[in-house]
Amino acid sequence: MAAHAAFDVRFAGCGRFPGVLYLAPGPERPFRELTEAVAARWPEAPPYEGRFASIVPHLTVADRQEPELLDRVEAELAAGLPLTARVREVRLLVSDGRRWREERAFPLGKVRH
């Protein structure tokens, strides 16, 4: 992952999948490139088990919730946006079907100017 530079991200709005509320990152491109690099390195483990044809970069906030709850959470989140951060690493998370745990972190390279 060091071939990819660290980068800044801004979350200015929310998006939805069925039953899911997420923060939409900007820019999206670095997240797509990182996802593609991980998928190329480990083709036996495609993103989201290969269920989706396209990559939609996102930060899940609420999952498997009723629309009314998602509406309330989104309204509360909107008051605190935008959020900004520096992305410095990719973390590999592994699920045993009940819980997620961090397996490993892959640092990104230096920020390019």
Structural notes for this entry:
The chain is of the alpha+beta class and 113 residues long. Helices cover 22% and strands 38% of the residues. The chain is built from two helices and six strands. It has a four-stranded antiparallel beta sheet with strand order 3-2-1-4. It is globular. 6% of the residues are buried.
Spell out the blueprint of helices and strands.
Layout: E1 7-17, E2 20-26, H1 29-41, E3 59-63, H2 67-78, E4 83-87, E5 89-95, E6 100-107
Antiparallel strand pairs: 1-2, 1-4, 2-3, 5-6
What's the short story on this structure?
With 113 residues, the chain is of the alpha+beta class. It is 22% helix and 38% strand.
- The strand line-up of the biggest sheet is 3-2-1-4
Radius of gyration: 15 Å
Mean pLDDT: 91
Task: Label the overall shape.
Answer: globular
Structural class: alpha+beta
Number of DSSP helical runs? 2
Query: How many beta-strand runs?
Result: 6
Which structural traits does this protein have?
single chain; 113 residues; alpha+beta; four-stranded antiparallel beta sheet; 2 helices; 22% helix; globular
